[in-house]
């Protein structure tokens, strides 16, 4: 299987080659035309300069054959073109060759060319001038006229060999292809380096993914310090690796904790049951040990129930189909009734601070009942005897806030960040609650997270306060009622004291 490194390099190489091929083809057509046009423009310029200077010499100083030859020879040496002049009948009277070497002197240009010059005034063709030249040449010719009459007195022929132009063009082509090959080589080397640099983190991620498949989540890939997509990918990959490592660690801890939580009661049950069966435990003490077995069995039942709830939460999340609007006041009161017996045993005063009006929220009522039950169970369990447990409800900014507050031992600051972790039990809670399994608050946090809600806990001076939020239900639109007259408006009622239902759904006062 070809690697992405090879594919990327091959694609880049093909793209560069095709690009240079297209540029080369365009350059050949455009460049050749430019070279030819440049030489023709040069020949035309030579002809016009010679015509102008010749006319000037005729009128000012007198034109001699020597001066004319010097003029033509100098211009030819500078431009590299061959030049000759004819009279008005086409007879060659002077040329740019050195003295005594003018092969065309005394010869005549074909009459057809002279006729064309008489009609058009100039001539620009590729020709051998009727055999005058031994090969095809680029020729530019124009008439020399007298300013007074405008009649042609002779003709100037400027020519250059095609091989000269093509030689210049060939040299230009070779330079172009040499530069092209150098640039192409550099482009391919750069593509090779860039492709390798792009492929390295992908190769590292592939190797890391293979190690993940074998259960090793400690490997990380090098993060690029740039801001491109590859840097974002490596960063996201490492974040995923961190998440997988945490999940694996939590899974291992979960298995270890479950094993520990199951081992203790099962060992107790098995030991006491064997003791009763083999007669080690006296008959008169069997009821005592049977009660312990029953307690441990109930503890196992609670653990299994919590684990099933937890598994359902983690696999299904928040079931949006079960969300509906309901009265939070009613749900709080209904949940609180299930704690009457336990609060009486500890002499706890259950204080409600609820708004007089209904407060509707949107959530899964069964899940929120579980949240309230777990928080109240926690508050009653750890409240000092003879103190109060306060449940408050108020609304603010489109949210309903529920507070469950008790007075007991202060939770250490180091334990607060861990209080919602799975199977977390502080030394304080282990001594006060031997039957707990450490999943109640984790379930609370999981349910509220599934609802996209928040929960916070504070513990100072023996007062522990859990506060969570729920989204208020949207009120149905009603037709606007006519404004009441001032004397018809109700006067605000005074706020009730703690222990009674609080008015207006305002935040509770601090204890």
CATH superfamily of the largest domain: PAS domain
Helix content: 40-55%
Instruction: Provide the CATH topology of the largest domain.
Output: Beta-Lactamase
Report the sheet with the most strands, covering strand number, pairing sense and barrel closure.
5 strands, antiparallel
Main location: membrane
Membrane topology: Multi-pass membrane protein
InterPro entries: HAMP_dom (IPR003660), HATPase_C_sf (IPR036890), HATPase_dom (IPR003594), His_kinase_dom (IPR005467), HisK_dim/P_dom (IPR003661), HisK_dim/P_sf (IPR036097), HssS/ArlS-like (IPR050398)
EC number: 2.7.13.3
Short structural description:
It is built from eleven helices and twelve strands.
Describe this structure in words.
- Residues 475-511 are annotated as: Disordered.
- The chain crosses the membrane at residues 12-36, 138-157, 169-194.
- The protein is α+β, with helices and mostly antiparallel strands and 511 residues long.
- A hairpin with a 4-residue loop joins strand 1 and strand 2 (92-95).
- Helix 1 packs antiparallel against helix 4 (162-213).
- It contains eleven helices and twelve strands.
- It starts with a helix and ends in a 40-residue tail after the last strand.
- The radius of gyration is 52 Å and the shape is rod-shaped.
- It has three domains: 4-167, Beta-Lactamase; 229-315, Helix Hairpins; 320-475, Histidine kinase-like ATPase, C-terminal domain (Heat Shock Protein 90).
- It has a five-stranded antiparallel sheet, with helices on both faces.
- It is 52% helix and 16% strand.
